[in-house]
Predict the structure.
Amino acid sequence: MARRTLRIATRKSRLALWQAEHVLRMLADRHPEIEVELVKIVSTGDVVTDRPLVEIGSVGLFTKEVQDAVLDGRADLAVHSLKDLPTQTHPELALAAVPERGTVEDAFLSPKHETLDALPPEAKVATSSLRRRAQLLHRRPDLRIVDIRGNVETRIRKLHEEELDGLILACAGLERLGLTGEITQRLPEETMMSAVGQGALGIECRADDPEILELLSTLEDQPTRQAVDAERRFMFVLEGGCHVPLAARARVAQGRLTLRARVLDADGTQQLEHAGEGDAEQAVQVGSELAEWFLERGVQDLL
Ligand SMILES: NCc1[nH]cc(CCC(=O)O)c1CC(=O)O
């Protein structure tokens, strides 16, 4: 390595810092000769917290500024929650490594109620995700879904302060922040299918930086990469950039990949679900084929 010090671009939230430090530790373990440091960046998604995510609307709200730091040379690599990283990749950046995935499921948090199904009629549940909102309403059309913004700790504070009956968050974030004590119920896939890339990290560097690409390849976990490749291709083919309530979960075992996906309308009135499978090495193809299945059934009209 010609460079003695590697700079990792990350957001400043506690979760983002944990994730960047996790990557830093993995790099330090594998390459003790290299110094690694963090470059902390503020993203639009962190600054604009008074408006619903859907309204701000642009993709890459949490990732663009962090990518910019890599593009203009302030950092050598960037660590993102893969869930937040648009499926349309920047032409000058490469998704150099996807490390082993953490917990994929969502969690239900509630100070008053023991399960999601035990919520009283018209209970107030907070989330800013279209996917979570639609799936909640599909199961419980009576629920009042309220928008919530801010980082994980802020949302948990609001849950307790603002008379909310429940909150949905990713288990992965809560585990990383040592907040599993806040989890009331881990939601099964049937109730709340996870987002594309949920629980996984994406590490980007400049596409024309072979030294860093090779170094980062040591962090790669192949089954995770195959799973998220299938999920991301599914979303890429279906979405074409607009936000729709969509969930997808791939699993890889013994070289086989199964991909299950769900598309809903905004109010969860209609839900379409289907699964596909194939050789894990054909992950991308499994993703596009499943997306085609949804397109053939007129899912665009649903959206
Ligand atoms: N958009 C917010 C975000 N992005 C990644 C995570 C948690 C980690 C993950 O799901 O991979 C979260 C918080 C949440 O959804 O609860």
In short: The mean pLDDT is 93.
